């Protein structure tokens, strides 16, 4: 036996032992309907709900960054208006704990978004055609954002109306061991209108300020994977790249030596990854435990966000 043949046999024996390659060919593929998923932590589904069905998925999370904790909740409430069109509501709530005693005085309402998603194609295993959808979201300023006094932690909203356009793609692949890998690639672009602000605000203005803020546009690309360990258990991972424009603030301050104020803050690129574990009691009920990690950049501090979500379809 040659050295090459010996090496091949050793590698093949290792692959057979781990189950990545099976001795029996062809490997039996796991049927799509026998793998239950809740969805990864960050990437929404490209699919739509069947007509008359509803999805409710509340998230609880804690954004942990230097000297602050941002406790929050976000809930997806979606309804299948037709088989191809799903509409939804996304309410948010928050509580900020900030070093120095300037945190929230109470749990507050954040901005509210409505959305509509139109499915263009449906996944087909024979041709490899993925599910593709167009998503449109519109946020409305419901949370406090200015006139915060000595409690800047009571700022739970942006005050700006934001329109987000999204392109969602979802497909399935079979691993060499026959297990399913569900993938999502989502791209979105958010554009915000300017907003009038007074006094202390979420934009870093001080008491006596009068002016306007224009949040920068934000482009986000999200590549996500879900691997079906068993029918009930799955592993998930999100990889996210975010490019944000600078926020412009213009106005006058009655307490400043120079009355005119004009500056640009923030902006820049950031990267995040979010591993998660899913447990699904059925195809319509699942629990997700995840952790989003954002490394430190020049424009933003590092943060770690543990989260739990319950996915329910009725």
UniProtKB/TrEMBL annotation:
Keywords, in A-Z order: Signal
Highest taxon of source: Bacteria
Signal peptide feature range: 1-23
This protein's name: Transporter
């Amino acid at each position: 036996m040659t050295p090459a043949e010996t090496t091949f046999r050793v590698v093949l024996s290792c692959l057979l032992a781990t189950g990545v390659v099976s001795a029996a060919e062809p490997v039996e593929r796991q049927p799509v309907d026998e793998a239950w998923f809740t969805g990864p932590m960050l990437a929404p589904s490209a699919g739509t709900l069947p007509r008359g069905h509803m999805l409710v998925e509340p998230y609880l999370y804690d954004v942990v960054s230097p000297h602050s904790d941002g406790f929050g909740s976000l809930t997806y409430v979606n309804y299948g208006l037709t088989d191809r069109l799903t509409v939804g509501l996304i309410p948010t709530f928050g509580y900020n704990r900030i070093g120095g005693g300037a945190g929230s005085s109470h749990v507050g309402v954040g901005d509210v978004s409505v959305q509509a998603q139109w499915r263009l194609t449906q996944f087909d295993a024979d041709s490899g055609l993925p599910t593709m959808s167009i998503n449109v979201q519109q946020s409305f300023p419901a949370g406090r954002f200015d006139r915060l006094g000595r409690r800047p932690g009571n700022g739970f909203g942006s005050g700006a109306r934001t329109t987000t356009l999204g392109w969602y793609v979802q497909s399935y692949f079979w691993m060499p061991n026959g297990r399913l890998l569900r993938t999502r690639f989502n791209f979105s672009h958010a554009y915000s209108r300017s907003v009038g602000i007074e006094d202390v605000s979420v934009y870093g203005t001080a008491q006596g300020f009068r002016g306007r803020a224009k949040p920068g546009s934000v482009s986000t690309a999200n590549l996500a994977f879900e691997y079906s360990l068993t029918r009930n258990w799955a592993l998930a991972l999100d990889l996210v790249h975010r490019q944000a424009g600078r926020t412009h603030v213009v106005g006058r301050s009655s307490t400043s030596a120079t009355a005119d104020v004009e500056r640009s803050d923030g902006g820049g690129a950031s990267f995040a990854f979010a591993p998660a574990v899913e447990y699904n009691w059925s195809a319509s009920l699942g629990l997700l435990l995840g952790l989003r990690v954002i490394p430190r950049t020049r424009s933003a501090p590092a943060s770690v966000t543990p989260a739990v979500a319950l996915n329910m379809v009725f």
